[in-house]
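Researcher: Good morning. I'm working through a list of sequences from a screen, and I'd like to move beyond sequence-only analysis. For each chain I'm collecting a predicted structure so we can compare shapes side by side. This is the next one on the list. No need for commentary yet; just the structure.
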Amino acid sequence: MQGPILVFDTEATDLEPGQICQLAYLYEDESGLRAHNYFFSVDDMSEGAQEVHGFSMEQLEKLSGGLYFEDIAQTFLPDFNQAKVLIGHNVAADERYLRVEMERAGLKLKKVNTFCTMNYASGLMNLARKVVTGRPKPPKLSELAAYYGVTEEEAASKTREWFQAEDISLHDARFDTVLTYLSYKKAIEKGDLRAL
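Model: Good morning. Structure tokens for this chain:
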């Protein structure tokens, strides 16, 4: 390993400029793998976002203990700033949300290299587009996982183990983080990718 990696996912209240309502990440360095998950109280929630991730404002209030992103951002900021690379599926969107939230909290997320599993796999998997654009369709996270033989059952099991959580579903940031991490590791195993 050439330095710490951080694989992460967020769930948000809406498209820009929404708030992050859940942040999950796996931080891996020479000492091993650590899993972290945070829920946040939010000021508003779009129906569409709630349909995707399933978290209502009331649930988030309970899960977060009434804490907002800015109340605990200093807890996890060091991990993000010490990572050699941030990895995610559509990482640009998650990083954008994270930078906006850090700015709102008066904190600075340093510029760190990113690696997007979605962009990386687009050319590799070469999925057909519905509309002809001359470029392959970016794979959904589930398509990437299937390509590398990572099953939902395996990801759910690892999510429960690493995050010490029982109630996990698709579009829970913990599950998506694990699915991304396992797919990344399988890509290295298969020789499609060098360790970052």
